Amino acid sequence: MSRLPDLVRDSQLDTQVRPEYTRHLYVETDPTSGQRAIEKKEYWKREKRIGSGGIGIVWLEKCFRGKRNAELRAVKQFPRPAKTRDLVRELEALAKFSHPKYVRCFVQSFGWYEDEDDLYIAMEYLPLGDLNNYLKAAGPVPELEVQQVVFQLLEGLSNILICSLPPQNWWVKLADFGISKRVEDCTTGPSTKKGTAGFVPPEFHGFTPSGEDTASDPPFSADIWALGEITFRMLTKSVTFQSSYDLFQFTEGRQTFPIASLEEKRVSMPAIEFVRACMRPSAGDRLTAPEAMAYEWMSAFVARSPIPHSVVSFGYSIIAIAIYFFSLTFDQR
User: Fold this and answer.
1) pLDDT tens across 72-90, in order?
2) pLDDT at residue 6 above 60?
3) Average pLDDT of the residues in 296-321
4) Residue 193's Cα: distance from chain center in Å?
5) Phi and psi for 150 in degrees, rounded to 5?
6) Which residue has the higher pLDDT, 302 or 290?
7) Percent of the chain at pLDDT above 70?
8) H/E run at residue 73
9) Does residue 1 form part of some domain?
10) How far apart are CA 96 and CA 92, in angstroms?
């Protein structure tokens, strides 16, 4: 692999991959014994496959000797890419957002390693899996709980941490940073041209109102569209647009936004307006993450917290990651 950023290089694990187990070697200091450097070994055994994507597989692994961080972990395995740009970006984002101050919003990485054919990323394991699979199995989610999830997604997208929140049943974390981007790296243009079918905006299908030029689309507008789709599906357990043709008709102004499913579930008007504002046909007309956080439906949720909020901006923005359900993990308390 070509020259790596220091953050990525420092997160690489000294590893031996064998068919029956994976072994990591760590060098640590032991202040109790006064030893400056002690070698410690950690052994992991693959338990089962828990997910897959376009080119990768996610495994559940269990530590059977020398436990250091956790007894269980998720390991993403994928072939070595011909180009390392996206890989380095993913590894750098994982290392960055594994810092304790980001742990509320992002899945923690324990490091990465490689063998002759593949690359592996060891990550925090959340036993309830990803949000997409949960929604397939469950019915529509109560609106208050949807607000909790959407708020946490916006928290991750805008990197604004609200220190005091109402009691919550959901804890959502973003993961899979293969197409992430720092906000200072992005000026204009779509956040990514990648995404999962059903969650990508009309411009990714080549549908634009009156032939708009997508080169001037605001950054991260695709993520806001996907956020609207997630919100719609959680509230209704149905997709927003039944076909690409319906999406095209909506983009061209020949079909109104399909609010009937939301109304049938007695979703509040502020929630309906929030979804519509996230899924406007023109990318430039959609909410930004800060605007979405301040929108009536979200601000009403935040206002229910009895304790004043302390807001901290981290200066980074993560786009398109698990919003596209590559790996949107969660824990429901």
Assistant:
1) 999 989 887 766 676 777 7
2) yes
3) 50
4) 16
5) -65, -40
6) 290
7) 75
8) strand 72-79
9) no
10) 6
147 lies in the same domain as 242 = yes
Measured CA distances, 135 to 129, 155, 180, 259, 274 (Å): 11, 21, 24, 20, 20
The whole-model pTM stands at 0.71
Helix 221-236, helix 143-158: angle, nearest 10: 160
Q: Which of 87, 107, 123 represents a domain boundary (last residue)?
A: 123
Q: How do residues 20-41 score in pLDDT, each as one tens digit?
A: 999 999 887 777 777 777 888 9
Number of residues that this document lists for the chain: 333
Eight-state DSSP code of residue 106:
B
Whether residues 161 and 216 fall in one domain = yes
Under 8 Å between Cβ of 80 and 118: yes
CB 275 within 8 A of CB 228: yes
Q: Which residue segment(s) compose the domain that 50 sits in?
A: 6-123
The candidate with the shortest Cα–Cα distance to 284, out of 192, 204, 205, 188, is 188
Total domain count for the chain? 2
Band of pLDDT at residue 16, cut at 50, 70 and 90: very high
